[in-house]
Write a structure and sequence with these properties.
Length: 306
């Protein structure tokens, strides 16, 4: 097969993976919401990385010698920044913000990819990219304070009923971690098997989650909480499909293209997340749409050529 034939094929496969990831990860926020019905945020995150690590364990055992363990520090960054820390931050945030907002704010990831690229990877920041970053942050800010209807009283701005919209800051921190993981993969693991990379990264962080579960009240909740089985089922599905399978595809997409292109999956995720949230009875306001439009337009500008 000629190079000219391979390039269009790779281009098509890249876009197919991007769309598949957007659907898979767009549904993950509603699965986290279901998991939180019975378990704490730390338990949801621990289950997610623990199950993923166990699923990857056979791959790690078989391919142990094929992994370059001298790159242990980058592997730990991919494991913790790309999975463990965001899993906890998203679970914490969704105790106070809706899955729709979580999905929309996830689109900050490409902006952080650009910021890190400028600061640490030699990327030139053009006027378009700078304007895009500003618009993205304004959109994220609108999502955080928008539901409070811009009330002048601080306690009303910070809290809406029983919800604390400032928990959305956890989501922004999570997207920074995703960007760090993506840039690390592009720099250190461009030619490494995506399956082996996923296995090494997740098996390194999984023991932390498993140990926490053993010393928490996880078993008690599983035996007594009326929604425990449904929550566990949602987390298992999230781990195997939204973490294990999706991570391999995401790492492969970075290797096929770039961290920036792969991170554009975050552009499509908000649409899916808002759709699932709406079907689950969540209130979708004009601020969600305005914030999403600003973020997506900001990212579009950052990728626009002169």
């Amino acid at each position: 097969m000629s190079e000219k034939t391979q390039e269009p094929r790779s281009y098509t496969i890249g876009w197919a993976i991007l769309i598949l990831l957007s659907i898979t990860w767009g549904a993950s926020f509603i699965l986290i919401k279901k998991g939180l019905l019975a378990f704490s945020p730390m338990q949801v995150a621990s289950l997610r990385i623990g199950i993923a690590g166990l699923a990857f364990l056979p791959v790690l055992i078989i391919n142990f010698k094929k992994i370059d363990w001298t790159q242990i520090k980058p592997l730990l960054i991919v494991g913790f920044a790309g999975s463990a820390i965001p899993a906890l931050l998203f679970s914490l945030a969704q105790t106070q913000v809706s899955s729709s907002v979580a999905g929309v704010l996830n689109s900050m990831t490409p902006i952080f990819v650009l910021i890190q690229g400028v600061l640490f990877y030699g990327l030139v920041l053009t006027r378009n990219k700078l304007l895009g970053v500003i618009l993205g942050f304004l959109g994220a800010s609108l999502l955080i304070i928008g539901p409070s209807y811009f009330t002048p009283r601080l306690e009303e701005v910070v809290s809406v009923g029983d919800k604390n919209e400032w928990y959305a800051l956890f989501l922004i921190l999570a997207t920074y971690c995703y960007a760090l993981s993506g840039n690390t993969i592009q720099k250190y693991f461009k030619n490494v098997s995506a399956v082996n990379l996923s296995a090494a990264a997740y098996c390194l962080v999984a023991p932390v989650g498993i140990l926490y579960l053993l010393f928490s009240d996880f078993i008690t909740i599983l035996q007594t909480h009326p929604d425990a089985l449904m929550s566990l089922g949602a987390i298992v599905f999230l781990s195997l499909v939204g973490t294990v399978a999706a991570s391999v595809l995401f790492f492969k997409l970075i290797q096929m293209s770039s961290a920036l292109f792969a991170s554009t999956v975050a552009f499509l995720i908000p649409i899916v997340a808002i759709g699932f949230g709406f079907l689950d009875g969540e209130k979708v306001t004009i601020y969600h749409f305005l914030g999403m439009v600003m973020i997506l337009f900001g990212v579009y500008i950052t990728r626009k050529r002169k």
